[in-house]
Write a structure and sequence with these properties.
The complex is a heterodimer of chains A (127) and B (108). Helix content of chain A is 0%, strand content 53%. In chain A, the strands form two sheets. In chain A, strands 2, 4, 5, 6, 9, 10 and 11 form a seven-stranded mixed sheet that branches. Chain A has a four-stranded antiparallel sheet with strand order 1-3-8-7, with no helix packed on it. The mean pLDDT of chain A is 95. In chain B, strands 1, 3, 4, 7, 8 and 9 form a six-stranded mixed sheet that branches. Chain B has a three-stranded antiparallel sheet with strand order 2-6-5, with no helix packed on it. The chains are: A mainly beta (127), B mainly beta (108).
């Protein structure tokens, strides 16, 4: 059973860069039909998909974040990372790393769903 | 950008059937999935590929997504107090993941 664990500072100052790492255990980040995602959830609000990366390094981002976000992968250490630049209080949230199962079960539309989540880490943006 | 719309809240009495909808343009042409999230916990997928249940999810959870329609539906039969949670739908839109806004299910 794959497990994901977020790590990084819980407090970031406004205008600085938020950096988080997700360590994957119980399976290789390079195997299978999986994308590796970052998702966040402000307190009392819904889930926001930030972006994802494939082990090859190709990535895709939510247009709402695209100019401020970078996701990278380190297959040798079974980790992937998130950087969000120029943060404000609006970036305060629980940040989850996740594994997305991605496939075309019948050769038509793609199925993509999160089958494993990290426990989440609260990041507060404040001076 | 693609959007999925859910009702903010749904209430149901114990033992009754709860229905939560998720609407998006031509959603029937995509695969929908559903997550359950209880307070302080990470979400858990309860339905994937429109109507498949992962192992460990009770048969009380079912879902549909009409092929030519715009609405996917999560149905919880014989609703129990333990089903009280937030529920999110999600779909893949070409190259991005899209979540619905979430529905708070109250069992009372």
């Amino acid at each position: 059973q794959v497990q994901l664990q977020e790590s990084g500072p819980g407090l970031v100052e406004p205008s600085q860069t938020l950096s988080l790492t997700c360590t994957v255990s119980g399976g290789s980040i390079s195997s299978g039909n999986y994308y590796w995602s970052w998702i966040r959830q402000p307190a009392g609000k819904g889930l926001d998909w930030i972006g994802h990366i494939y082990p090859s390094g190709s990535s895709s981002y939510n247009p709402s974040f695209q100019s401020r976000v970078t996701i990278s992968v380190d297959t040798s250490n079974n980790q992937f990372s998130l950087k969000v630049s120029s943060v404000t209080a609006a970036d305060t949230a629980v940040y989850y790393c996740a594994r997305n199962h991605h496939e075309r079960p019948y050769g038509g539309a793609y199925s993509n769903y999160v089958d494993s989540w990290g426990q989440g880490t609260l990041v507060t943006v404040s001076s | 950008s693609y959007e999925l719309t859910q009702p903010p809240s749904v209430s149901v009495s114990p033992g009754q059937t709860a229905t939560i909808t998720c609407s998006g343009e031509k959603l029937g042409a995509k695969f929908a999935c559903w997550y359950q999230q209880k307070p302080g916990q990470s979400p858990v997928v309860v339905i994937y590929q429109d109507n498949k249940r992962p192992s460990g999810i009770p048969e009380r959870f079912s879902a549909s997504n009409s092929v030519n329609g715009d609405t996917a539906t999560l149905t919880i039969s014989e609703t129990q107090t333990m089903d009280e949670a937030d529920y999110y739908c999600q779909a893949w839109d070409g190259s991005t993941v899209v979540f619905g806004g979430g529905t708070k299910l109250t069992v009372l």
